[in-house]
Amino acid sequence: MKADFANPSSLSLHPSSFNLHTFFEKFDQFASAPNAVAKMRELVLQLGVTGKLTHSDDSWRVVSLGDVVRLRRGYDLPTQSRNEGEFPIYAANGAVGFHDKPAVKGPGVVTGRSGSIGKVHYVPRDYWPLNTALYVEDFFGNDPEFACLLLRSLHLERFSTCTAVPTLNRNVVHKEVVRVPPLAEQKRIVAKVDELMALCDRLEAQQQERETRHAALARAALARFADAPTPANLQFLFHSSFTITPADLRKSILTLAVEGKLVPQDPNEESAEDCLARLGLKGAIGSPNGGDDDGLPSSWTRVRFDEVALVAGGVTLGRKVRERKTVSLPYLRVANVKRGEIDLTVIKEVLIGEDEVERYALRENDLLMTEGGDWDKVGRAAIWRAEIPVCLHQNHVFRARIRSPEIPPFWFERYFNSPVGRGYFESASKQTTNLASINMRQVRSCLIPLPPLAEQRRIVAKVDQLMALVDQLETQLAAFRAIAANLLDALVAELTTQEESMKGEG
Which of the residues 26, 136, 198, 358 has the least number of beta carbons within 10 Å of its own beta carbon? Predict the structure, then answer.
């Protein structure tokens, strides 16, 4: 009788496996746990090779693995000889081609000998194992498919040598003590494991189908959020079945913010251009693309960053300060400046001349930006809150001090940390293989969209509100996944308790 994969209760399980039946029925409750299906497969495998899935008797033998299978190193086959043919060529990662002649009469089992150790492949026909693999030369009358399950359950990577290229020593593996049932029960175990693995395949396919469908719904919901970004539909985006990550949501919120789509404009407010003129700062410079309409609200403008902020470099470490009156003071490094926050976990000090302290000392509400390093460090921005009375910044951290006290720095921090701001620095930065960096000229010349002051405050408040909601919902999702993972672990522990006790008896 075939199992109805849509109805796990249709499986003809032995009464002793009732808990496994429950395990499958509760899949939806722990499907969000990390590697849920993979853990189900591992559990089925372990229960299978220990006789928990079938009518077990007491005639199991305790023997060395070398009495069950004899492993042998594969054959040399030059690359130029791996031509098209009828017989599969096996290496550690499975079939890698075909040859016109077999080296081993199947069915058989192949596992990795060096490099990728622990992968075990069942080959139902004749094949050619390469010298990077081990194959079973003799099954000593045991069922090849059961031998394959047994080898998988042993996690052969445990036996590899700790060298630059891990290698599996078959002589060591042969000494491993295992329990082996009679041939008839081996075949029953293989049939039951196949049945349950097929159920795992079905559940995995259903899970992937749900994820695909939810991804489409999530994209539609994200578009809806872009049209009307409110806490209500942000919460809708965080439905547990959706696949939008908190990081993607944060990026979307910041993108909408710097594009003028997060809060409505008020035509009665002083425009950004009028505000700059009133403060004696240089006004609009037009679209970065040279056009009149760059998609910004009419009350916004664009301004070069150095027109509204004084950008300066920091103190260079390792300078000679002999014959000067010096003082040792804390300073901020690139590692201290995260996106949107200053990390004060580890603060170092630098020796500096007393006459230079004023030049490099930070003031409250200074905007700090990182010169570079890894890709995620380029242009990171955070506001200094004066947590340390006198603190400096090193030369790899730029300091931007807004020219007018009437203009708060918070808008600029949000812009530089948004995907739009990050895109500017990625395109302007000097790049090597894994590193990137920007210079002070590029920071100063960055064209920044500037809303009216009142709208800046509304945008920042809305961003903070939505980000707090993202944080809250992210915590809820983490708790939900933790509950799912705990449930999965509890079920696995319950089902393997008997197995562990039997091992102890052995």
Answer: 358
Contact 43, 23 (CB under 8 A): yes
Tokens at residue 425, please? 């620095």
- Contact between 438 and 379 under an 8 Å Cβ cutoff? The reply is yes
pLDDT digits (tens, 9 = 90+) for 11-59: 333 434 445 666 677 677 677 677 888 888 888 898 899 888 887 667 8
Closest by CA to 26, choosing from 43, 14, 46, 45, is 43
Residue with tokens 């693999």, as numbered in its chain: 133
> Using CA atoms, how far apart are residues 366 and 27, in angstroms rounded to an integer?
52
**43-201 and 270-451 have identical folds:** yes
Nearest to 150 by CA among 133, 126, 174, 125: 174
pLDDT (tens digit per residue) in 76-95:
998 888 888 899 999 888 88
Sole residue written with tokens 């559940």: 203
Residue 351: strand, helix, or coil: strand
Contact by Cβ (8 Å): 315, 350: yes
- Kindly state the tokens that stand for 412: 């600029």
What percent of the chain is helix, strand and coil (3-state, nearest 5)?
45, 20, 35
**Is the distance from CB of 302 to CB of 284 less than 8 angstroms?**
yes
Is pLDDT of 504 > 60? no
CA angle in degrees (0–180, nearest 5) for 194-198-199: 120
User: How far apart (Å, rounded) are the C-alpha atoms in residues 370 and 385?
Assistant: 17
Query: How far is CA 496 from each of CA 21, 60, 482, rounded to the nearest angstrom?
Result: 14, 19, 21
All structural domains of the chain with their residue ranges:
43-201, 270-451
Instruction: Decide if 456 contacts 412 (C-beta within 8 A).
Output: no
Tokens at residue 85, please?
């043919």
Residue 310's φ and ψ, nearest 5 degrees, are -90, 115
Q: How many CB atoms sit inside 10 A of residue 401's CB?
A: 15
Phi-psi region of 286 (alpha: psi -120 to 50; beta: other; left: phi over 0): left
Q: Whole-structure pTM over 0.85, yes or no?
A: no
106-124 pLDDT, tens per residue?
Answer: 999 999 988 778 889 999 9
Architecture of domain 270-451: Alpha-Beta Complex (3.90)
Angstrom distance (rounded) from CA 264 to CA 458: 9
Query: For 43-201, which CATH class?
Result: alpha beta
Burial class (CB in 10 A: 0-12, 13-18, 19+), 82: middle
